[in-house]
């Protein structure tokens, strides 16, 4: 009996030890998972802050760009960047410069958060596949692969937040003569759903998605490739011994990246905005076949919008608002990239956008 009791005691001790080991292993498994969740949250926060800060900084130029894109060519109110800003100030005051910015930030904050995070994940996945394909574990992302990762990030972020962009555009251009008077973001969403149906929230989605492929893709590809080139070549003493780029240098990289991306994708942005404004006779262009201002042009799709815009207003119409947009994009993209990296640094996450 004593022998059996001893065996039972030993068996119980073994079970307790095994349970303790299992609990220890479970805790070890939970720690990295918890760390990963925290890291994801920090990355999303950094991306959201970057989007909000950068977009608010250039809100007046953003509004002027949209007004230039959709104004009636036979009743010009906003003629150029400086004169356009002065006209808004004179007719609507300081608040007019930031009209729609609250809704814009409500869209851009999650958009930016998803975009930066999606780029990190896409670049890691693409790099892994590239390393497996080449058999070189030390291989790094090429500019073309970064372009692909950026395109994936742009498509995901655009699709996830597109209804907010639609609403922001409507609120930004509405006047006293607009068919609907939106009191705010949620009122605009409910009104569009009720009066025009769910599909109206995605008007212009196709050219938007096509547009973000070169726009966001080139932003990330040019920005990171420029940074890598500067770190490797160290021209003009722009990189210190620690191979870290200064804030001003990174701002310059972001400015170049933004300028390249928006120049390539801008015509698609004009088409998207016009498709969103269909039915707004005081916001959209009003032209007919004889070139006179008689009725609003109705667009049946992306190709039709391109065709009618070029036919009635010429190729230059596809670049309406490009100047204020260029002035806006240079600081906006630069501020977004640098703010993202700085916030991640403050939160204790790796600075580099992609590993």
Automatic annotation (TrEMBL):
<dbReference type="InterPro" id="IPR018108">
    <property type="entry name" value="MCP_transmembrane"/>
</dbReference>
<keyword id="KW-0999">Mitochondrion inner membrane</keyword>
<feature type="repeat" description="Solcar">
    <location>
        <begin position="245"/>
        <end position="346"/>
    </location>
</feature>
<keyword id="KW-1133">Transmembrane helix</keyword>
<keyword id="KW-0813">Transport</keyword>
<protein>
    <recommendedName>
        <fullName>Mitochondrial adenine nucleotide transporter ADNT1</fullName>
    </recommendedName>
</protein>
<keyword id="KW-0496">Mitochondrion</keyword>
<feature type="repeat" description="Solcar">
    <location>
        <begin position="141"/>
        <end position="229"/>
    </location>
</feature>
<keyword id="KW-0812">Transmembrane</keyword>
<dbReference type="InterPro" id="IPR002067">
    <property type="entry name" value="MCP"/>
</dbReference>
<keyword id="KW-0677">Repeat</keyword>
<feature type="repeat" description="Solcar">
    <location>
        <begin position="38"/>
        <end position="125"/>
    </location>
</feature>
<comment type="similarity">
    <text>Belongs to the mitochondrial carrier (TC 2.A.29) family.</text>
</comment>
<dbReference type="Pfam" id="PF00153">
    <property type="entry name" value="Mito_carr"/>
</dbReference>
<keyword id="KW-0472">Membrane</keyword>
<dbReference type="InterPro" id="IPR023395">
    <property type="entry name" value="MCP_dom_sf"/>
</dbReference>
<dbReference type="GO" id="GO:0005743">
    <property type="term" value="C:mitochondrial inner membrane"/>
</dbReference>
<dbReference type="GO" id="GO:0055085">
    <property type="term" value="P:transmembrane transport"/>
</dbReference>
């Amino acid at each position: 009996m004593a022998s059996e009791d001893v065996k039972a005691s030993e068996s119980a001790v073994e079970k307790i030890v095994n349970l303790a080991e299992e609990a220890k292993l479970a805790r070890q498994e939970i720690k990295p998972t918890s760390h990963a969740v925290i890291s994801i949250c920090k990355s999303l926060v950094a991306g959201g802050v970057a989007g909000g800060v950068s977009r608010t900084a250039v809100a007046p130029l953003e509004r002027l760009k949209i007004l230039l894109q959709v104004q009636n060519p036979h009743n010009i109110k906003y003629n150029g960047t400086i004169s356009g800003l002065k006209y808004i100030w004179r007719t609507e005051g300081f608040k007019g410069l930031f009209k729609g910015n609250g809704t814009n930030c409500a869209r851009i904050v999650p958009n930016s958060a998803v975009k930066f995070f999606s780029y990190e994940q896409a670049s890691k996945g693409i790099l892994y596949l590239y390393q497996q394909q080449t058999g070189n574990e030390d291989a790094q992302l090429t500019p073309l692969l970064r372009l692909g990762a950026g395109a994936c990030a742009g498509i995901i972020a655009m699709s996830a937040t597109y209804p907010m962009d639609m609403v922001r555009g409507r609120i930004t251009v509405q006047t006293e003569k607009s068919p609907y008077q939106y009191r705010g973001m949620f009122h605009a969403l409910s009104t569009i759903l009720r009066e025009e149906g769910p599909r109206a929230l995605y008007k212009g989605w196709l050219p938007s998605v096509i547009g973000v492929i070169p726009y966001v893709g080139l932003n990330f590809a040019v920005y990171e490739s420029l940074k890598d080139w500067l770190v490797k070549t160290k021209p003009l003493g722009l990189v210190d011994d620690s191979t870290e780029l200064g804030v001003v240098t990174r701002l310059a990289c972001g400015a170049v990246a933004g300028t390249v991306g928006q120049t390539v994708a801008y015509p698609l942005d004009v088409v998207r905005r016009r498709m969103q404004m269909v039915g707004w006779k005081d916001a959209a262009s009003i032209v007919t076949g004889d070139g006179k201002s008689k009725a609003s042009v109705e667009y049946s799709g992306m190709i039709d919008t391109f065709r009618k815009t070029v036919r009635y207003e010429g190729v230059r119409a596809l670049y309406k608002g490009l100047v204020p947009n260029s002035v806006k994009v240079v600081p906006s993209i630069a501020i977004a990239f640098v703010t993202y990296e700085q916030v991640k640094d403050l939160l204790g996450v790796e600075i580099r956008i992609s590993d």
